[in-house]
From TrEMBL:
The lineage of its organism: Bacteria, Pseudomonadati, Pseudomonadota, Betaproteobacteria, Burkholderiales. Keywords: Hydrolase, Nuclease, Signal. InterPro entries: N1-like (IPR000026), Ribonuclease/ribotoxin (IPR016191). Residues 1-23 form the signal peptide. It holds the Pfam family Ribonuclease. Gene3D superfamilies: Microbial ribonucleases. SUPFAM superfamilies: Microbial ribonucleases. It comes from the Bacteria. This is Ribonuclease N. It comes from Acidovorax bellezanensis.
Length: 135
């Protein structure tokens, strides 16, 4: 069946990019009880830029945060992250070197207690895509 579909797409000139069609579900998400969307890729905490690791550490400490908007509710209007009630997600700025403003990088964490998030996500492109952070 799949071969027939692929053959049909190739005959009609459409290309299939399997790398984007096959999503990897983060294994660590299930270990901590977090749910992630199947479209989300993952990133190890150690792979975040130094500024991202610093922001993550501040989240776990409860601050203090350098920007007034850090810790504010993230509305998930893009609907990329798993659907939750308003107030579940909070956003934090990841400083971007040489940026004149807050830049495009953020960490968004979800959970009932901000210092003990159930899941955190990193975006380098201001919410266009997210990567589940694996500790």
């Amino acid at each position: 069946m799949l071969k027939a579909v692929v053959a049909r797409f190739l005959q009609t000139g459409f290309a299939i990019v399997l790398g984007t069609a096959c999503a990897v579900t983060p294994l660590a998400a299930s270990a901590r009880g977090a749910q992630t969307s199947p479209e989300l890729s993952s990133i190890a905490l150690s792979e975040l830029p130094p500024q991202g690791r610093r922001t993550y550490g501040l989240i776990r400490q409860g601050g203090p945060f350098p920007y007034a908007k850090d810790g504010s509710v993230f509305g998930n209007r893009e609907r990329i992250l798993p659907s939750r009630k308003r107030g579940y997600y909070r956003e934090y700025t990841v400083e971007t070197p040489r940026s004149r403003d807050r830049g495009a990088q953020r960490i968004v964490c979800g959970g009932l207690e901000p210092q003990i998030p159930q899941a955190c996500y990193y975006t380098r492109d201001h919410y266009a895509s997210f990567h589940y952070i694996i500790e």
